[in-house]
Amino acid sequence: MKAVIITRPGGPEVLEIQDRPRPEPGVGQIRVRVCASALNRADLLQREGNYPVPPGYPADIAGMEYAGEIDALGAGANLWKTGDRVMGVIGGAGHAEFLCVHEREAMPVPARMSWDDAAAIPEAFLTAYDALFNRLDLQTGETVLIHAVGSGVGTAGLQIAHAAGARVIGTARSPDKLERAKKLGLDIAIDASRGDWATQVESVIGGQYVQAILDLVGGNYLEGNLRVIAVRGRVVVVGLTAGATAPFNMGMLLRKRVTIVGTTLRARPLEEKIELARQFSGRMIPLFETGRLQPVVDQVLAFDRIRDAHSLMQSNKTFGKIVLRWA
Amino acid sequence: MKAVIITRPGGPEVLEIQDRPRPEPGVGQIRVRVCASALNRADLLQREGNYPVPPGYPADIAGMEYAGEIDALGAGANLWKTGDRVMGVIGGAGHAEFLCVHEREAMPVPARMSWDDAAAIPEAFLTAYDALFNRLDLQTGETVLIHAVGSGVGTAGLQIAHAAGARVIGTARSPDKLERAKKLGLDIAIDASRGDWATQVESVIGGQYVQAILDLVGGNYLEGNLRVIAVRGRVVVVGLTAGATAPFNMGMLLRKRVTIVGTTLRARPLEEKIELARQFSGRMIPLFETGRLQPVVDQVLAFDRIRDAHSLMQSNKTFGKIVLRWA
């Protein structure tokens, strides 16, 4: 099978499509012929040699999500049949023509959805769903602040929070991204390129009404998060594009009785991945079928343009997901 | 009535006992004749002018807990009768001969317990109970690390965690405090005055098995907390004696999927204080009556020695609480 190989740590030029042995499904697993996948920041970090790949996945093939057709069943697998359309996240090696996962980790592709759209769902929407409901316990009527609202996880979180009846404030560093986010349900748009975003939030909503924050930026956004968060507010940190280390005012943490939680999907044990996939299948897939949620695809590129795809993501100019397809 | 007055911001010498009007109980309130109270770090900060007193409490009278006899009932109060022995926390003005609280905030003094012992319970044990169960969700069989285990909240948390079937690791900066903590159930004693405590924890328990941390120190203990905490571990920060601000490695927060929560009892709204007092009355008071929990009193001083009491707490040499009594 074909796979995108990281030939050595480096820039997009180190990526090459090469042949690799097709994997065989183990007990309880399914093998999926990947029709489409998508790109994530962790893929770029892995390419640079800066992301520890979870045990059991090759360091030289990136790729954390897929949509495709089941082409073989491992011993004991009985949840699906060959030909079923599935999608999901995987710890690595998703940028290949075939992959194997435990059958209970896979989720059904929403009815009538294209492979390209389906491939834009798993990582972004599972991350956002888990962050908003399992980590933040977001409630109808609450106000949630989403940083980098134009990103893959940002646009997913925005739609889920909007569907759940929350008021959504979003930050981005581009007026264009904010305009597009408004069409997905964004209530209050904050342009972080126009001075301090926390001051803007304070002036727009006039006090401390932000009960929850979905932070995909990290770094010194921490300081602003603690300023605008309400008493007993919750912050989930999912991404660190602005840096991993920042000064932490724990006095504010105590006075406001804030909860800060870090999360990541990739390194989770099987039982947690299964639990999340089953929750999401039951609660979110129907919302795609009724149109309440929609995958946000910036561009679809063939896998032979994988280097362009990596460069595009590094440009920070995309809105939503960069989808990759084999044909 | 007599009260300890903070005559101006400053050291222990600014404290004076003066006469003040006796408060009258409002609707739903009880008035308590205070037999004993105790000292807290926040009282010292308030004396220095560095603690914002919650609305409704005078800035010039400290004191956050009490044990005493009900001497008057406000309109509609019907949970208690005059002469009942009660104890509890209060937002301020506890260092006085009388105080008024909502009747549902008060808790019964455990049967046959002295006033001095009862006064050592509320702030330390309510804080520890709330931190361990409501913030950390501590479970039987888990390992909890308690910093400053010889302090009031530390000795309370140690006993509660031990009673709940958790393994308790404790840090302190004195071998003597650790020896005394062992008698209260401490499983693993770490002397923080002998080099890096986190390295000691790692070498003693050989891996990342610390599921929960009760941190009464703050400051750069944050770095060690993130090092020793288990995947999906929880940290509650209750005190900041080592400082409020520290560099925060959010990369570690994400990778380990850690939850950090700040908490404080004092500034809570009435409904939360009542809920906590009722929980504690139902679950913890019986454990004092069977002897599983015991107040830890370092010294009992008459209120006319309030300056000595403040100096004693500043010395950091006490083990458990400094109790103050009117007679």
Short structural summary:
Chain A has 327 residues and is an alpha/beta fold. Helices cover 30% and strands 28% of the residues of chain A.
Main features:
homodimer; 327 residues; alpha/beta; seven-stranded mixed sheet; six-stranded parallel sheet; 11 helices; 16 strands
Molecular structure report:
- Two copies of one chain form a homodimer.
- Chain A is an alpha/beta fold.
- Helices cover 30% and strands 28% of the residues of chain A.
- Chain A is built from eleven helices and 16 strands.
- Chain A has helices at 41-47, 115-119, 122-135, 152-163, 175-182, 197-205, 221-228, 250-255, 270-283, 285-289, 306-314; strands at 2-6, 15-19, 29-38, 65-73, 85-89, 98-102, 107-108, 143-146, 167-172, 188-191, 210-215, 229-237, 245-249, 259-262, 297-302, 321-325.
- In chain A, the strands form three sheets. In chain A, strands 3, 4, 5, 6, 7, 15 and 16 form a seven-stranded mixed beta sheet that branches. Chain A has a six-stranded parallel beta sheet with strand order 10-9-8-11-12-14, sandwiched between helices. In chain A, strands 1-2 form a two-stranded antiparallel sheet.
- In chain A, helix 11 (306-314) links the parallel strand 15 (297-302) and strand 16 (321-325).
- In chain A, helix 6 (197-205) packs parallel to helix 7.
- The mean pLDDT of chain A is 96.
- The interface between A and B is medium-sized, with 27 and 27 residues.
Name the structural class of chain A. alpha/beta
**Multimeric state:** homodimer
Instruction: Determine the strand fraction of chain A and express it as a percent band.
Output: 25-35%
- Sheet with the most strands, sense and barrel status of chain A: 7 strands, mixed
Provide the succession of SSEs of chain A: EEEHEEEEHHEHEHEHEHEEHEHHEHE
Which regions of chain A have little confidence, pLDDT < 50, spanning 5+ residues?
A: none
Query: Judging from the principal axes of the Cα atoms, what is the shape of chain A?
Result: globular
Number of helices of chain A: 11
Biggest protein-protein contact in the assembly = A-B, 27 and 27 residues
